[in-house]
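Ticket #4471: structure output looks truncated?

Reporter: J.K.
Steps to reproduce: submitted the chain below (375 residues) through the standard prediction queue, then opened the result file.
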Amino acid sequence: MATFITPTIVAKEAIMALENNLVFGGLVHRAYSNEFKKVGDTVLARKPHEFSTVHDFASSGTTTSQTIVESTVPVVMDKLNDITFPVTSKELSLDVKSFSEQCIAPAMRAHAQAIDKAIAEKFVDIAAHYPVSTTPAVGDIAGVRTQLNLNKVPFGNRSVVLHPQTEQAYIVLDAFLHAEKRGDTRALKEASMGRVFGMDWYMDQNIQTHTATDAATNPNTLGAAATAGATVIKVIGATSTSASIPVGDVLKISGEANDKGHVVTTAVVATGGSASVTIAPAIETGGVASAATITWQETHKANLALHKNAIALVTAPLEPPLGGARGEVATYKGISCRVVYDYTSNIKTNVISVDVLFGIKVLDKELACRLCDAR
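Returned output as attached by the reporter:
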């Protein structure tokens, strides 16, 4: 029987299906390497440029030229996700639409879920956080906006991505019931809750739940004064002699100017009721006096509010196979995937493999805020 579904056709259908099913992946910065890479390689992803200095021409009467420097960040391509499935000659002779619906679309939905999950897991690097109310309120929405404003996040390309249970609590509010639904791809349209307070709101099943140490057992007092710029603080007062503080735990220190919170960057155990905790960002200007109260965020759904340039999704093409196997590499809107046709002799079956090589990198943690839902 003649085969009509070629690797080229499958690759084109697969990459478009992947793009259509991404939620988080459609809201972050996307970078692409045009060179073939393998898992473990490092790609230098171009970082969006920003001008931080504005010259006062009225005072000086002259202009000062600023050089645009192309900045890059290293991203390890540590994710190589593969879906391999058997196909028959009958399936390969289907028309493109039927084959896409039966075989390609389900595979690429799974790939999209895996990519979105990898992005959602980066919540551990986001320090700024806002705890939501026990009863859903419009004030929470304003609070998230305020956190982003304090971080000087640009107004455009702001998004909020919620856990399904958090979405359930907010979508019944009038602010969302009357919001205009928008989105650029199928998944974004279906996941959209609308644009509210200058932010596009979405639901994603891949939002993570951060399991924190019981806040009641954690150290709750600053054991020594912390100067501005400090990234390690001494905390005391743990009720447990071995309270574990995991990476991603968030805390606030009373008395810190414009405190947006800090995230624990290295896991530590509060031995003997005290611990040296590594945090990010650093202590703010003015520092904090000894004995300041520390407030820990308990276990919560780690919803994320972010600007597009907070996190990068970086993909690179994989080399097509050598030898007898047929393959094709496709790229679309900054995403690449590889399709390989092969024959497994031990089970005497034709198989199709679709794999995606990518890496995730937080570009600027100041451009995001964790919306903590402890309900």
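Triage note (M.O.): checked the attachment and the full token line is present. Residues 212-298 form a domain with the Thrombin, subunit H fold (CATH 2.40.10.170).
Status: closed, working as intended.
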